Amino acid sequence: MIEFRNVSASYAEELPVLRDVSFTVPDGDFVAFVGTNGAGKSTTMRLVNGLLKPTSGEVLIDGASTRDLKTSELAAKVGFLFQNPDRQICCETVREELLFGFKVLGRADSEAEARVDAMIERFGFDADAEPFLLNRGTRQLLALASIIVMEPPVVVLDEPTTGLDFRECGKVMDAIAAMNARGTTVIMVCHDMEVVGDYARRVIAMTAGQVVADGPTFEVLRDRAVLERAHLLPPQVAGVSMRLGEELAGCAGTPVAWANTLDEMERALADAVGSSATRGEDAR
Amino acid sequence: MSGGFLEYVPGDSFLHRMNPVAKLASAFLLVIACFATSSPALLALVLVVDAVLAARCDMVAQTIGLAKAVCAFSLLLALIALLFTPSGDVLVALPWGYVGTGSIGAAVLIVVRLVACAVPLFLVFYVTKLTDMANAIVKVLHVPYKYAFAFTSTVRFIPVFMNDMAGIMEAQTARGVEFDGSLAKRIRLMVPLCVPLLVSSVRKTNSAAIAAEVRGFNLRTRESGYKDYPFATIDVAAMAASAALVAAAVALGLLL
Q1: In the list A67, B81, B217, B251, which could disulfide-bond B212, CB 3.0-4.6 Å?
Q2: With an 8 Å Cβ cutoff, is B230 touching chain A?
């Protein structure tokens, strides 16, 4: 479990970037941090794995304060995917890159080799390829794979889909969702509300270094006041459904006004059209 | 120096206002003076000049920090001089020679010389906008713009690469690498990180070159710059004073 207790943080002598932030992430949760640039999301992520220590308050990982642990010690518990994969990749082949984490932690045994082989097969990597010659999406996938191959209980992702096309984005996010389904806690910073709506179960919205909303994904993303305060737009289907519910009297209070996903909207519209057709037939 | 390493710090001191070419020339003359002499008195004089310049542009604390960093770096060279320059009265006998009174003098001289010559060079970058430096080199020295641009880009990229290296080290720390411990261990851990740094440097340089090219970089000539960089009395005086120090250093070298 990850616990932030009244955490404030700043860089060097600058003003606090994070102010009195508190939240708890239970094991196995999938949380997305949303908000504008400079809201404090990435700083929050850096606090989770100890790259930054709080100036006041406590960050607890399974009850242990990050103040008492080095980032390298936290690495076994918290995997961190950086926005730029090129900062993470440092080995000469894909296989070595995937094995790197095991070597650092002194666990490069036959089990590690087996996990690496499975990961290579799962993502269709060329084991002997030079990582820096791969395209951007594949490098991002490799950086993610090199984290999840370690099977850490918590994974922190700082904008994992930046610069990826739709197909690459789906591949990366499906891998993350599968990991979460196996019990890994996922904490993600994301600007793409479609991705947030599709994958996260909980959203924490931040602005100016403070949490402004924390709740189930669509509860937060359908709250007009929160959206305005955090300068966010809801996912498109949710946005359409909100407007239909607010502006078309016939839709208010119907499933059309609550639909969050394409499937929900399709069902709601089919029901609405069906019942209107029935009403038409009745009238005739 | 409130910004990054070698990044311009705005100000209104006489050093800020001086002609960029005069600043560069004076700094290089001071470097020559430092290397042309072994006189402790002259090196002390250059240090005093450094201190006055730092005080005039309100960078005393930062200059002390810089001097400390240069000191730490030059200690390695000083150690080599101490162990491998046997001269003067024997103080400690070594299997390959000895450490003498002269060895200590040589070691101290290395540290003082490097600090004395580094401070003015670094100050030039902190009190001069890189665009002004490039334009002045083109306008005054008639250096083709592409060479001036290459020079200033090199300087401009230093903090960028330092930031990249810090990011790469941070990413590896997050994967479990411990960068603390002995110097040898740290160097061993940092060597593989040169690969991502090199790759990111090449990518950045390539992107910058393409961006410059598509914005008409090759069309730029000496006449493209709007601003002129005439020499003022202070510029001539600064260069004359620095040249006098070089002459004094050479003369002292011949006399001693």
Answers
A1: B217
A2: no
